[in-house]
Amino acid sequence: MTRLFLLEDDEALAEALAWALEKNDFAVTRAATLAEARKLLAGGDFALLVLDVGLPDGSGFGLCRELRAAGSAVPILFLTAADEEVSIIRGLDGGGDDYMTKPFQLGELCSRLRALLRRAGGAAAPQTLRSGGLVIDLPGCRVTRGGRTLELTAAEYRLLCLLVRHAGQTLTRRAILDELWDGTGDFVDDNTLSVYVRRLRSKVEEDPGAPRHLLTVRGFGYRWEGEA
Ligand code: CA
Fold first, then answer.
1. Cβ contacts of residue 136 below 8 Å, gap of 6+?
2. pLDDT tens for residues 136-158?
C-alpha cells in the first residue's frame, strides 16, 4: 500500500476521494485544515501528498512551500478550483509537482498519482495481480474470474489485494487489521474482520464451505493460496 496524505476541507469530496484512492491501493490519511495537516505530516511518512488549495486556515501552496523549505521532496499534487487556475503557476513554482482542476475524473487522478510515484523513483506498481483464478485489475479496481466481474465492497477488495500480494504467507489477524484499517479512523474489530473474510470467501471461492484459496490458519489468521 502506498501511503497518501489528503488535505481537503470539502468533506463530501474528501470522502469520495479517500474511498476511490483506497480502492486503488493507496492508504489514505486525511486532514481538513492546515493546522491538522502540519501535525499529521510531522508524524507520518507519506509517499504522496494531495493538497487542496483553498483551506479554512490558509493555502495549500503555503504548506507546500513550508515542506520544500524544510527539505521534503515528497511528490505533491494540488487540487484547485477553476477560478484558482491562474495561480497554479505559483503553486508549481513553489515546489508542487502537478495539479488537477475540480471537477476531475478520479481515474485520471489515480494515473497522475502513479506517474508522480514513478517519477519519484518508486518502482512502477504492477497493474494486474493474478492468483487463484482471479484477475485483479488495479487501475480499474476490478476483480474478474473467467471474464466475469465479482461485486466486491471496498473493504473486501482491499482485503483481497492484501492477501493476494502476500500469497503463501500467513497474515495474523492483527497484521491485517493494522495494515488495512489502522489510521483510517474506521473502527474494525476482530469480529468485523471475520465477517469480511466470510463475505469475501463467498464471492471468490467456488465452494465457500471448502475454501481452496482463502484459508483460515487457526489461532493465527489467514493465508491466500494461489494454486490449489
Ligand atoms: Ca477547499
1. 128, 129, 130, 142, 143, 160, 161, 164
2. 987 778 899 988 999 999 889 98
- CA 90–ligand 1 middle distance (angstroms): 17
Q: How far, in Å, from the CA of 113 to the mean position of ligand 1?
A: 20
Report the separation in Å between the CA atom of 42 and the middle of ligand 1, taken as the mean of its atom positions.
22
Cα–Cα nearest to 178, from 160, 152, 159, 199: 159
> What separation in Å is there between the alpha carbon of 104 and the centre of ligand 1?
14
Please give the distance, rounded to the nearest whole angstrom, from the Cα atom of residue 32 to the centre of ligand 1.
Answer: 9
* Distance separating alpha carbons of residues 138 and 43, to the nearest angstrom: 29
CA–CA–CA angle 219, 181, 56 (5° rounding): 165
Alpha-carbon gap, residue 77 to 97, rounded angstroms: 6
Cα–Cα distance list, 103 to 50, 53, 67, 100, 206 (Å) = 15, 14, 26, 8, 41
Q: Cα dist. 180→12, 44, 100, 156, 195 in Å?
A: 22, 16, 27, 10, 15
Specify the pTM: 0.54
The amino acid occupying position 6 is: L
Cell of residue 163, nine digits: 492477501
Q: Report the separation in Å between the CA atom of 84 and the middle of ligand 1, taken as the mean of its atom positions.
A: 11
